[in-house]
Fold:
Amino acid sequence: MLGYMLDTNIFGKLKLKGLDQKALYGARLYVTHNQWDEIQHTSDEDKRNQLMEVFQQVGAYEEQTISFFLGISVLNKAKLSSGCQFNAMLNRLIELDKEDGKTPPVDNQRRDILIAETAIKLNHTLTTNDGNLRKVVGEFGGHSIKFRTLSSRLAKNGRSFSRE
Structure:
């Protein structure tokens, strides 16, 4: 495992917990352009500004996504691929969400899979609180954890996310 790929929902958790940047010192944290793009689409302006601030404070390294999806991906921030794994992962996530009665916008699921596929291919552990996405990552040979697990791992090294 090279590092932790942070899903967009983790920035909301960091906002709620109060980010102590010392907790992140030495942690190898990664994102793609998709997390920033999702934050930019947050309709509540105050929440969006707070999430943007947390995103910038985290200072994660940006990776190119392994696949390119027209209308979502950004040139020079995504690679071209056959799309086979992307499509299989997306179909599985849609299936799991449907079974759970979830109806997220398909573009959100596409972004999630771009992030997850990138984490798998780069041998990063995806950190997300989306149980279905974690399940898909595991089924396709990757590693994923909840925010609580990342927080616990960092705490073992004497670091905490809370400023309290």
